[in-house]
Design goal:
This protein is α/β, with parallel strands linked by helices and 344 residues long. It has nine helices and 13 strands. The protein has a domain of 198 residues: Rossmann fold, CATH 3.40.50.720. The strands form four sheets. It has a seven-stranded parallel sheet with strand order 3-2-1-4-5-6-11, sandwiched between helices. It has a two-stranded parallel ribbon with strand order 7-10. Strands 8-13 form a two-stranded parallel ribbon.
């Protein structure tokens, strides 16, 4: 006798482009770019955000758009959106080391309770849901590059565990809603992404390096800088996410740029792009910092027809241009005890 219950059939009813979408984490770095892209396609957007790590300023340029309704809302509380919804993009979560080390319980809650509420909304509305997962589900990988079938190498009780395991749980919950309730879901595993609207003090490598270079400060490189990252420009990522949303594919699907760079090379390229006289200074590596990170994107290419188009140098130049304006007025955050000065 088979001890596995039969999966409930998934009925896909999503429109392309969607008529009305809900974006959680709408005022964050990625969420704001998704909102902008959806509005440009004629989709009405309800944006939900508690503004803990996001800011309404990220959506100031579309604030008067008739198709946007931005609501201050904690997704871990009861969520109600009146009217029809075709698509739910669940992107609410602290995502940078500074944020999830300062907000560990909140990070776990949004990955669990928040994901359950987003899935419940999609279930009630008959909408497709795309979960923003992360390459961090692979941890410090022992398989390189990382394909979707790799289960990962994660320390659940390390400082990064609050984020890694929140996303791993969110993936399991999303899959359970698909197989048990027939909710039309997809999981996107997002690799390192950069571009305008990143916060100068969010603790990630590229915004940290750009901020330091523009200020003429030494760039703080963790370890010897030979650990690798694969960085994708935000426009490419958004295009991949929306292709997945319209595809009907359940995922998980890696979206990221497979071009691999050392952290030291990233820092040196930032110095060159900014024309800075900054030098490099080497600091200790954070606990459980991955040695390598590169997506296997063959599934995205074959199933979605997606591949990155914006070269690293071009994306970096756009990002530096934005930071030249933004960093002048960016407030210096109150970094809580337990955060690391080494960018990730």
């Amino acid at each position: 006798m088979n001890d596995q219950a039969a999966a409930v059939p998934v009925i896909s009813t999503h429109a392309d482009p969607p008529r009305r979408a809900v974006v959680t984490g709408a005022a964050g770095f990625l969420g704001s770019h998704l909102v902008e892209a959806l509005l440009s396609r004629g989709t009405e957007v309800v944006g939900l955000d508690d503004f803990v790590t996001g800011t309404p300023e990220n959506l100031a340029h579309v604030a008067e758009h008739p198709g946007l309704r931005l609501v201050r809302c904690d997704i871990t509380d009861y969520v109600h959106v009146p009217g029809e919804v075709d698509l739910v993009l669940h992107f609410a979560s602290p995502a940078s080391p500074v944020d999830y080390l300062k907000l560990p319980i909140e990070t776990l809650k949004v990955g669990s309770i928040g994901t359950m509420h987003a899935l419940g909304l999609a279930k009630d509305k008959g909408a497709r849901l795309v979960l923003a997962s992360t390459s961090e589900v692979y941890g410090d990988p022992q398989v390189h590059p990382q394909p979707e079938g790799y289960w990962g190498h994660v320390n659940p009780v390390g400082p990064r565990g609050v984020y890694d395991e929140a996303k791993r749980y969110a993936e399991a919950l999303t899959t359970a809603y698909r197989t048990t309730h027939g909710v039309d879901t997809a999981i996107v595993r997002i690799f390192n992404t950069f571009g305008p609207r990143m916060r100068p003090y969010d603790g990630r490598a590229i915004p940290t390096f750009v901020r330091q270079a523009l200020a003429g400060e030494p760039l703080t490189v963790a370890g010897d800088g030979l650990q690798t990252r694969s960085v994708c420009y935000v426009d490419d990522l958004v295009r991949g996410i929306l292709l997945l949303a319209s595809s009907g594919h359940p995922g998980p699907v890696n979206i990221g740029n497979p071009t691999e760079l050392t952290v030291r090379q990233i820092a040196e390229d930032v110095i060159a792009a900014t024309g800075s006289s900054s030098t490099l200074t080497f600091v200790g590596r954070p606990v459980d910092d991955p040695q390598v990170r590169r997506p296997d994107t063959r599934l995205a290419a074959s199933e979605l027809g997606w591949q990155p188009e914006v070269p690293w140098a071009q994306g970096l130049a756009r990002t530096v241009d934005w930071f030249r304006e933004a960093v002048v007025t960016a407030p210096v955050p109150d970094l809580a005890a337990g955060t690391s000065s080494a960018p990730r």
